[in-house]
Write a structure and sequence with these properties.
This protein folds into two domains: about 35 residues, no CATH class; about 50 residues, Arc Repressor Mutant (Orthogonal Bundle), CATH 1.10.1220. It is about 50% helix and about 0% strand. The longest helix has 19 residues. The chain is built from three helices and no strands. It is globular. With about 80 residues, the protein is mostly helical.
C-alpha cells in the first residue's frame, strides 16, 4: 500500500478532482491499481494546431499528458452516449 496516500471521503475526493487545482495522486492507492481491457490498439489522428494547443492547455491545467487528456475526453463522451441509449 502507498504509505503516502491521504484519506478523504468520496465526496471530498470528487470535489478536489472537479476543482482541478490539486494533484489527486496522493489520494490514490496506486499499488493496487489495475487496468481493464489492457490490450491497446494504436490509432493516428490529425488535429488542427489550435485544437492541439487547447488540449495541451487543458491537460496542463489538470496535470495529465495530452494522450491521457484525449483518452479521458473520448471515454467521457462514449460514457454519456451509452447512458443516453
Amino acid at each position: 500500500m502507498n504509505k503516502d496516500k491521504k484519506n478523504v471521503s468520496a465526496e471530498e475526493f470528487d470535489r478536489i478532482f472537479d476543482e482541478g487545482k490539486e494533484d489527486i495522486t496522493p489520494y490514490l492507492d496506486l499499488d493496487s491499481a489495475t487496468r481493464i481491457n489492457k490490450r491497446a490498439k494504436r490509432v493516428n489522428v490529425d488535429f488542427p494546431a489550435w485544437m492541439v494547443e487547447a488540449m495541451d492547455q487543458e491537460a496542463d491545467r489538470i496535470g495529465i499528458t495530452r494522450q491521457a487528456f484525449i483518452k479521458v475526453v473520448i471515454a467521457e463522451r462514449l460514457g454519456s452516449l451509452t447512458q443516453q441509449a
